[in-house]
# Entry
Amino acid sequence: MLGFVEGKIISKSIETSQVVVLCSGVGYEVTLSKQNLEMTQVNSHLSLWLYTHVREDAFTLFGFYSEAEKQLFKILIGVTGLGPKIALSLLSEHGPEKLIQLIIHKRTSEIAEASGVGKKLAERLSLELSTKLSKLAWIQAMPQVEMAAKSNSLSKEDQVREDLTSALVN
# Structure
């Protein structure tokens, strides 16, 4: 499977959220989140972490600027009923840092704002991932998540839970 690509962007399509990255004479068509796509420019150099999704009728590459974002994507597609396109839709709508906070704090109505995500899927996402995401060490490495967690006004019980989780992770 392909895990990383580095090269020059030779094409960009806003309609399909894809770029073509030329690497050693081969053009790789990579699907990006809306935020990542907006940061790209044709003829610029690009390095992406890749997730390779293989189906019987398609071989699709999804690209991420950080390995942490790729890992979050892989966790999202592990949820029953949530495929790569919906996971990318969630990342496009909320961004990785905000999405993590929404899941941890079980804000299902905000999660459901993403295209293709209904109330039931948002509830399943929160139920299955809130504990898992709050325990993962790499999330603490994301600076914006740390700042967002500090800026949110948490109840005393939630703050104690956050402190205990942090202590266990460290």
The CA atoms of residues 4 and 49 lie 4 Å apart. The two ends are 33 Å apart (CA to CA). Strands lie at 4-13, 18-23, 26-31, 45-54, 59-64. The first helix runs from residue 34 to 38.
